[in-house]
Design a protein that fits this description.
A six-stranded parallel sheet has the order 3-2-1-4-5-6, sandwiched between helices. Strand 2, helix 2 and strand 3 form a beta-alpha-beta unit. With 194 residues, it is an alpha/beta fold. The chain is built from six helices and six strands. It has one domain: Rossmann fold, CATH 3.40.50.1000. The mean pLDDT is 95.
Length: 194
């Protein structure tokens, strides 16, 4: 039986965007993130984090910091009875200054490497019945590239993107006020598959 998955961005989507977050003490969950993820957990939909972390390639922090932040996120969610099924991140950027990470990879969103890894690991994900939720255009482009539906949140950079004049970008399947709105919409949308 193939499952639906929700591929979630981190900064500006689940946690407050502060730009190149490197201090776990500054990690702040949006108030509805845990409850929304728990709703996905309770319905059997996979909740998978997919995040670009080019701060590694740019020399702002190392992968140990990314892992520390992701562990803090998991701990905060656990305190609220929610969990992520997996976390995948891209530490690369082609203009990075750290040589081993300064490359044009296949995992930096909107390329599909992170989702491809999730599909390889879980083996039962149906991408046609899956979603990408994020606050940037690269998240919506990732959804299209992977064959999922894309939901743009107004949190993080979302409102700014929507307010830019003459913005020519791939339109999301849905624009959500927050995670609660996004999850409610996708759960309703999934009823069309039943």
């Amino acid at each position: 039986m193939q499952k639906s998955a929700v591929f979630l961005d981190r900064d500006g989507t689940l946690i407050v965007e502060i730009g190149y977050l490197s201090n776990p003490d500054q990690l702040e969950l949006y108030k509805d993130s845990a409850e929304s993820i728990k709703k996905l957990n309770d319905t059997g939909i996979l909740s998978i984090l997919v995040t670009n972390q080019s701060g590694v390639a740019r020399g702002y922090f190392g992968e140990d910091t990314v892992n520390l932040l992701n562990q803090k996120l998991l701990n905060v969610l656990k305190e609220k009875n929610a969990y992520l099924d997996a976390i995948y991140y891209c530490p690369h950027h082609k203009k990075g200054i750290i040589e081993e990470y300064a490359k044009d990879c296949d995992c930096r969103k909107p390329k599909t490497g992170l989702i491809n890894q999730a599909v390889a690991d879980f083996k039962d994900i149906n991408l046609e019945k899956s979603y990408v939720i994020g606050d940037k255009i690269c998240d919506i482009e990732l959804a299209r590239n992977a064959g999922c539906k894309g939901i743009l949140l107004k949190t993080g950079y979302g409102t700014q993107i929507l307010n830019e004049p003459c913005q020519d970008f791939i339109k999301p399947d849905y624009v959500a006020e927050n995670m609660t709105d996004a999850v409610d919409w996708l759960l309703d949308d999934l009823k069309n598959w039943q």
